[in-house]
Amino acid sequence: MTVKLYNKKTNIPEGVTVFIGDKTDYIKFLSDEKQINYLNNQFEKEKNIVEINLYDSQMYFIQFKNDKISNKNEKIRAAGSKITDLLNSEKIQKANLIDAGNNAETVKYFIEGMYLANYYFTKYYKEEDKKKPTLENINIFSNSVKNKELTELINVAEAVYFSRNLANEPLSGLNALQLSEKLKKAGKEKRIEVTVLSKSEIEEKGMGGLLAVNKGSSLPPTFNILEWKPKNPVNKKPYILVGKGIVFDSGGYSIKPTKNSMDIMKFDMAGAAVVAGAMSAIADNNLPIHIIALIPATDNAVDAKSYVPGDIIKMHNGLFVEVLNTDAEGRLILADALSYAQKYDPELVLDLATLTGAAAYCIGIHASVIMGTANDKIFKKLEKSGENVYERVVKFPFWNEYNEMLKSSIADLKNIGGSEAGAITAGKFLERFTDYPWIHIDIAGPSVLSKKSAYRTEGGSAYGVRLLYEFFKNMI
Fold first, then answer.
1. 89: number of CA atoms within 13 Å, CB side?
2. What's the domain range around 29?
3. Residue 26 lies in a domain
4. Which of 355, 354, 344, 357 is nearest to 419 (CA)?
5. What is the greatest pairwise CA distance in the chain?
6. Mean pLDDT score of the chain, rounded to an integer?
């Protein structure tokens, strides 16, 4: 979708026009008393969108009311999403947007909602063009919005698209090797240095968790290192992102027990997709930070060679792990990556993963679960960033008592902690592989949606891309 910005004094072309502001701002755009009375009457009926059809043109006036949403800015995004859906349903290709209230922030949130809602994953339709959204162009008429702000917004939205495209690909279109190729291609386009470790290199580095999970696969694993290092970054030590890249998860020999749960396991690499999307947004907007992303990737398949419950794995940092559940595989590949991150002496590490059903059961699709060892100031910044972009986070307790649940009688620790506090014990497992300030973000709930929710589309939602971008922008 193309978005262009014009001065509001420019002549507005005929066609579909959306007015953004307050009802008092709209009156000057209406030609007679009947139209004004009609608009006021419709708003009194609590309508969020009012249409006035002048035959040669259509006008839409917006009222930002949604009692289901607690955040004012999110109400504006949701209204933008609703307009996109309406315009696409009417097969409209171009729309004009009038900043009636001279409020740049309102316009930006509205455009953000419009842009993010215009995503469709259409690659696997025979008649793909018929499935694509018709809305292709938005002309913004505003004296308050700056081109730089608009460019930044679009770059982040495109990064969300990139992340959604990765997550929505099935295993037949995105195995671990193909994921690495896509990351290399994106890195070349965006000036991100990408290094992909082969299986032999992974073996040399002793990444026993990644190798164990990969045993049942017909393809080798990959370990992807993405680095964005502009001139004069604000941080002396790098920030690091770690993304879980399980491109498909059968559960291994502890095969998925829940009905239909395997149907969505192509999304088990949503953490990797989000990390890749965040790196894209950071590079495209040239944030002056040094940041490295680590993405271990493989599928978790069932085969005669697969690892099994009872196996003991030697991890990258030398710890031995007793495997009691092969469906708790994500933490094994993340643990190797978190251990590998120590070599960079990082300022801060954040990992993102669809790690536990327990997190989704606790918090649903409306937020992610966070925990870790970073200081309270960093946690508060992440929480504030989540509220700003409405990708909210909820901090869970991280008491030492939870370590007791991971004790093994024959190894350093076991890979599951039992039926209680599953999200927390998964985090405590990962903690054993860190020696730096760290935050674990379990995105199992909001990362995959069974149906569209405003601008968050069905399937991979790319939850976390905007959160991470906002967080690192605020770290500058």
1. 7
2. 2-145
3. yes
4. 357
5. 83
6. 96
Contact 241, 293 (CB under 8 A): yes
Residues 275 and 352: beta-carbon distance below 8 Å: yes
Residue type at position 369: V
Residues 270, 238, 332, 196, CA torsion sign: positive
Q: Tally Cβ neighbours within 10 Å of residue 347.
A: 18
Active-site entry in 190, 331, 392, 432: 331
Three-state secondary structure call for residue 50: strand
Q: Which one, of 176, 180, 258, lies nearest residue 213 by Cα?
A: 176
Pick the catalytic residue: 47, 94, 132, 256?
256
Cα distance between residue 453 and residue 309, in whole Å? 38
CATH number reported for the structural domain that contains residue 314 in this entry: 3.40.630.10
Share of the chain above pLDDT 70, in %: 100
pLDDT exceeds 90 at position 11: no
Residue 365 is assigned to a structural domain of this protein: yes
Scanning 252-296, the segments in alpha helix (DSSP H) are 270-284
Stated pTM of the model:
0.97
Residue 256 appears among annotated catalytic residues:
yes
* Cα gap 21→107, rounded to integer Å: 8
Distance CA 352, CA 208 (A): 20
Report how far apart, in Å, the C-alpha atoms of 463 and of each of 191, 213, 364, 466 are: 24, 25, 13, 7
Q: What are residue 137's DSSP bridge partners?
A: 2, 94
Q: What is the pLDDT of residues 89-106, one digit of tens each?
A: 999 999 999 999 999 999
Q: What span, in angstroms and rounded, lies between the C-alpha atoms of 76 and 73?
A: 5
Whether 205 is catalytic is: no
Residue 35 to residues 20, 31, 404, Cα–Cα distance (Å): 17, 7, 69
Kindly report, residue by residue over 356-387, the tens digit of the pLDDT.
Answer: 999 999 999 999 999 999 999 999 999 999 99
Q: Which residue has the tokens 């842009």?
A: 115
| Region of residue 75 (left: phi > 0; alpha: psi -120 to 50; beta: else) | alpha
What CATH number does residue 76 fall under? 3.40.220.10
Q: How many domains does one find in the chain?
A: 2
The pLDDT tens digits for 383-400 are 999 999 999 999 999 999
Residue 362 contacts residue 448 (beta carbons within 8 Å) = no
Torsion sign over Cα 77, 79, 84, 88? positive
Q: Are 351 and 241 spatial neighbours (Cβ–Cβ below 8 Å)?
A: yes
